[in-house]
Amino acid sequence: MSSCDDMIRAAGCVLWRRSSHDGGLEICLVHRPKYDDWSHPKGKLKRGEEILAGALREVAEETGFQCAPGARLPTTRYIARGRPKRVDYWAAEATDGVFTPNREVDRIAWLSPTAARHRLTQPRDKTLVDALLNALHLA
Predict the structure, then answer these.
(1) Mean pLDDT per segment of 10 residues, for the chain of length 139 residues?
(2) 110 phi and psi, to 5 degrees?
(3) What is the structure's pLDDT at 128?
(4) What angle (nearest 5°) sits at the alpha carbon of residue 35, between those of residues 127 and 106?
(5) Most buried pick, 1, 23, 111, 123, via CB within 10 A?
(6) Could you give the number of structural domains in the chain?
């Protein structure tokens, strides 16, 4: 049994926008070359960092976008490298920004909810797409 001190705390957002093409919902996924996976932007909290502030910082660092946080989404819990990990998520609308590839994230993709669900690597991330649709009353 592990202590809370051993838990990895992280936060992120399911980042969304309306397509300039047809007004449809688009979800931003990030590709991390280190793991060769597609996920929602997220990352570890800094010591003493407020959870939502950490989520917004990670979105900005990984995607280059500022965002307006909305509804709280389900928290995911899993084991990462033998330690329990908790990731708190929010729905967040992209407001402004430009993606620049970086060490952690080499590309992003703006996808329809269906395409995002198919592209996401981890099943636990797929359920967050449905949670976003519910939060936006689109489900």
Answers:
(1) 73 96 96 97 97 98 98 96 96 97 96 98 96 92
(2) -100, 115
(3) 98
(4) 95
(5) 111
(6) 1
Closest CA to 38 of 10, 74, 14: 14
CA atoms within 13 A on the CB side of 44: 8
- Domain span including residue 67: 4-135
Q: What is the pLDDT of residue 135?
A: 97
The CA distance from 74 to 6, in Å, is: 21
Whether the model clears a pTM of 0.90, i.e. scores above it, the answer is: yes
Q: Which residue has the tokens 């996924």?
A: 29
How many Cβ atoms from other residues are within 10 Å of residue 57's Cβ?
A: 16
Q: What is the pLDDT of residue 139?
A: 64
Return d(Cα 121, Cα 139) in angstroms, integer: 22
Give the phi and the psi of residue 57 in degrees, each rounded to 5: -65, -45
Q: Would you say how long the chain is, in residues?
A: 139
Tokens 């800094």 -> residue: 46
How many other β-carbons are positioned within 10 Å of the β-carbon of residue 50? 12
Two tokens, residue 46:
């800094």
Query: What is the token pair recorded at 24?
Result: 């449809």
